[in-house]
Amino acid sequence: MSALAAPNEVVTKALLRQVAVPGLDRPAALITLDNGFDHTKPNSFGPGGLTSLDEAITAALAAEPAFIAVTGKPYIFCVGADITSLPALENREQALEIGRLGHRVFARLKDSAVPTFAFVNGAAMGGGLELALHCHYRTLSAGAAALALPEVSLGLIPGWGGTQLLPNLIGIPAATQVIIQNPLMQNKMLKPKQAAEMGIADVLLEPADFLERSLEWAAGVVRGEVTVTRPEVDKDMWAGVLYFARQTLDQRLHGAVPSAYKALDLLETAKDADFATGTAAEDEALADLVFSEELRSGLYAFDLVQRRAKRPAGAPDKGLARPVTKVGIVGAGLMASQLALLFARRLQVPVVMTDLDQSRVDKGVGYVHTQIEKAVSKGRMDKGTAAKLYGLVSGSVDKSVFADADFVIEAVFEDLGVKKQVWAELEKIVKPETVLATNTSSLSITEMAAELEHPERVVGFHFFNPVAVLPLLEIVRGERTDDATLATAFAVGKQLKKSSVLVKDAPAFVVNRLLTRFLGTVFAAVDQGTPLDVANSALDPLGLPMRPLALLQLVGPAVAYHVGGTLHEAFPDRFGVSENLKRIADSGQPIVVDDQINDEVAKLLVVGDEPLTGEQVRQNALDALAQEIRLMLDEGVVAEAQDIDLCMILGAGWPFHLGGVTPYLDRTGTSERVTGKRFLPRGVASLR
Predict the structure, then answer these.
(1) Sheet harboring 68-72: ordered strands across?
(2) Confidence label for 6 from pLDDT (cuts 50, 70 and 90)
(3) In 3D, which of 184, 77, 224 has the Cα closest to residue 138?
(4) Do residues 409 and 419 touch, judged by C-beta distance below 8 A?
(5) Which of 671, 562, 537, 502 lies closest to 617 in space, CA to CA?
């Protein structure tokens, strides 16, 4: 196959038109990128799209315009390379050819004698943002939804000039943040205002008349009436910033993400190398990474997040969903208050919290108001929206306020008896069709609803902390939960902008069950006598977002001990109960202080005399994960292994380069050795 042949490519065409601009004696050449679909299928570049852009630039230059501008279809500039075609590449030379083609076409805008502009009207990611960086000037819409160079998270590098252009435009500290740090923070996006402040854009314009204002601004630049000044890049700090970045990567990833280290090398090259040398280095790095296992896992994870998360497996017909015009929240603690803010912001309906006394209610409502005030002060929310939200969130000590609620969720103490009591009381108050949702992290939905008159309307609605950040929502179907309740839960989850996964009513569901098994294995090694620092660093080669003890501290030792106890009751042969974990929970002391293990906590432990090596701890943990995942799939906890991976990525922050978890277990041979077979077919998330 030729690298220039992409039979399945949805070609993004570069549509050229001449535009008369007031104040200029010649028309401007406006190139609009458009793949023929609406914003739900963004523009991307494969060989056909690059060829179309190349032809449009040739035609534009031939017309001798006042300037050339590139923009995109509504809401979308361009989201980069067509990564779906990468697995079809058969050899390294084809990968090099793709890199060189993009560089050659984009460089025509950089090297043009005619002024070139990028009118970034919407989402610009990866190669799309790199295209904009090649233009002499850039306008940016304040409504652009996504701005990023996310390649490192997938196992790639910005391969069309980004590593060379960006640091020399905005400086090495900011470029390192955009190219390496943000992708490794669950693909953090830049806000338009932030991108403009960094210097990625020369001017930020409102979306309502963005194209008209961009043309006017560009005409001002061409006429010499608008002067674009850019601060000189400080190269004295270059080496120091990259040294610190490499140390940070070593501490966090321990060599587990080759693309991050390749990106660092390319940023180092950008300091002194000429552009041709730097882009040739990008080509070589890209060709190396295209045939890596990490990229295959990254592409698999990307597909899960972009496609499967939007079409939850097993979700009922959305037409069965009931409207939700008011939400009730039982509890006014931190979790309940976070939920109140989220529901009010996303659903734009009245939200009322209740608790045992007025002081708790006031504290919960006060938390919501404080968060709204913070959002306004930081420019993340306008005062009109804030005023509306203030009016939507209220509190009461009288549960009768739930009488007209369509959806009530409880966030009370994690005790089955307490939750059953809550529902028994509420059932006498709410409407017969009101959905009763529980945020339980481990308890049985079926048991919780067993004594109710209408158990069919109880559903698990398990969020992950922090609620505003982690996108996963485990929706748990009890044995008697009906389709209308489930459809309403999925509809609400979508309104909340969460990625929902349907889960069977099984102990601790997906994420907590796997993390408890994982942490339990690590802590069992501590109980045997393995030093805390050895157990804590044993999983470093995986490049997980947190070491085990930091994760345990985030979850909370008391919560971990409670969930572990629930799972021990269900599966005593696989989930042990650690008295050392109980000692830590009872002490109330932090396990980790400033990334160092707390010596005072270490003194509390009573351990055996059979310590394990770090490698043994790691293999035990991986073996335990493989066994538990196989059992969960056999039990039908989720539909497929892909849902396990989606949950681990979105709910636990496990990285793309692992593909969540099952691709890593497959490629290391762990799944076949422990369970007798792979979780995924060969080639789905691996080279072979």
Answers:
(1) 13-19, 28-34, 68-72, 116-120, 137-141, 203-205
(2) low
(3) 77
(4) no
(5) 537
Closest CA to 419 of 409, 430, 433: 409
Round to whole Å and give the CA distance between 192 and 139.
10
- pLDDT tens string 289-332: 999 999 999 999 999 998 999 999 999 999 999 999 999 999 99
First to last CA, the chain: 19
User: CA dist 591 to 66, 298, 524, 599, 605, Å?
Assistant: 64, 32, 16, 9, 12
C-alpha–C-alpha distance, residues 350 and 344, integer Å: 7
Type of residue numbered 374: K
d(Cα 440, Cα 460) in Å, to the nearest integer? 7
Q: What's the token pair of residue 249?
A: 């990567």
| CA–CA separation, 509 and 686 (whole Å) | 27
Sign, CA torsion 201/203/209/215? negative
Q: CB 320: neighbour CB atoms within 10 A?
A: 15
Dihedral class, residue 559 (left if φ above 0, else alpha if ψ from -120 to 50, else beta): alpha
SS (H, E, C) 231-282: CCCCCCCHHHHHHHHHHHHHHHHCCCCHHHHHHHHHHHHCCCCCHHHHHHHH
Residue bearing tokens 């008011």: 326
Question: Is it the case that residue 3 has pLDDT exceeding 80?
Answer: no
The beta strands (E) that lie in 497-599 are given as 499-504, 592-593, 596-597
Task: Kindly report, residue by residue over 633-668, the tens digit of the pLDDT.
Answer: 999 999 999 999 999 999 999 999 999 999 999 999
What's the whole-model pTM score? 0.90
Query: DSSP labels for 497-513?
Result: T-EEEEEES-TTTTHHH
Cα-based angle 469, 514, 572 (whole degrees, multiple of 5) = 140
